[in-house]
Amino acid sequence: MAATKQDFISGNDLYSLRNERLVHAVVWSVTAILPFVLELWTLITDSTFDWDFVLRWWSGMLPLIIIFMIHNKFLIPNFMKKGRIGLYILSVTILMAIYAGYVLISMPPPPPMHQMPPVHHMPVHKRPLPFHFRLLFKMILAVLTLGLNVAISLLFTYLRDQSVRKELENQRLHEELKYLKQQISPHFLMNVLNNIHEMTEENVKEAQDMILELSYMMRYVLYESEKDMTTLSSECRFISSYIALMKHRYVEDFVTVNTDLHEDTSDDISTPPLIFISFIENAFKHGISYSSQSFIDISLHVKESGIIFTCRNSMPAERKQSSESGVGLANVRRRLDLLYGDGYSLDINKDNNTYSVTLTIPDR
């Protein structure tokens, strides 16, 4: 059964929320450390360190942290992310009004000018601003705090949604690929059983030998098709068994089958299981004539460009109307798209007398 979005949310949320909280912690830590940096600079230049300035800075941060927590934990998840924009704007307006009232109550007016020290003797960051400027400055800080909170939240929501969509797409592709591989096995079995059925009417002994070959091949199909990748040498042995099985049907005087499969290829080279068999099935199905000379040439090589598979077959007059379309080839095309995207090449050429397929895939 295909997975749903809920199957991935918990893990992605845990990861993204952890990082989101880390970003919040870094921002607030830098803000808290900033007065120390300013005072250290004052200490270096004027040999003074004003702890009162640091404490005032921290006391000014406290209400900003409170409105940030309310905004981050309640307003964003319950209003903004749920599309309740009207309620969100109203709630933020009320929150800012409460903060403005707090600032007006808690912020004392500046002392009279005759009680203030000369401005030129004070560090720039400690020179007092007019009352209305201080109020405006604090409100701007509050707006920036909420704006930064929204930006970070939307960024991580986007990243989380992207991660969920990627997981769902990967799962969908996995399920589709699994379905395609499950289709290939019955399609292959159906063709071989039809061949054996025809042989039982002509040669019972050969039909029995074909059944033994088929049993070996079905073990391969059963166990290897469940894997994402198999060794190229195993795939070559499977192809050889299939070709040997098919040769029982035809008179050698009329049909020439040439193979160059490199069955001793290193087991380090991998390939998707049953990726070539559909082309070979197609060659035997459409390229063999019972009344004229026919041929099939099959080769499989490993080169710098990757694994190169080539299958050429004759096109008897009575088969020229056959098309390369069908369940097997349609499935293998789709599998190649899912597995390699644009990383493979498939060239199919057909003229009056020959049908050829050349497939190049990475040797991963």
Q: Helices and strands: which structural class?
A: alpha+beta
Q: How many helices in DSSP terms?
A: 8
Largest sheet: 5 strands, mixed
Mean pLDDT: 77
Strands, count: 7
Distance between the termini: 29 Å
Molecular shape: rod-shaped
- Residue stretches low in confidence (pLDDT < 50, at least 5 long) are 1-11
Estimate the helix proportion, in percent: 55-70%
The SSE order reads HHHHHEHEEHEEHEE
What percentage of amino acids are in beta strands? 5-15%
**Radius of gyration over C-alpha positions, nearest whole angstrom:** 37 Å
Across the major sheet, the strand order is 2-4-5-7-6
Report on the structure:
The chain starts with 5 loop residues before the first helix and ends with a strand. The chain has helices at 6-46, 51-80, 85-106, 131-200, 204-224, 232-247, 277-286, 327-340; strands at 230-231, 255-260, 270-271, 294-303, 306-314, 345-350, 354-361. Helix content is 62%, strand content 12%. The longest helix is centred in the middle third of the chain and has 70 residues, at 131-200. Residues 1-11 have low confidence and may be disordered. The radius of gyration is 37 Å and the shape is rod-shaped. The strands form two sheets. Strands 2-4-5-7-6 form a five-stranded mixed β-sheet, covered by helices on one side. Strands 1-3 form a two-stranded antiparallel sheet. Helix 1 packs antiparallel against helix 4 (131-200) and helix 4 runs antiparallel to helix 5 (204-224). The protein is α+β, with helices and mostly antiparallel strands.
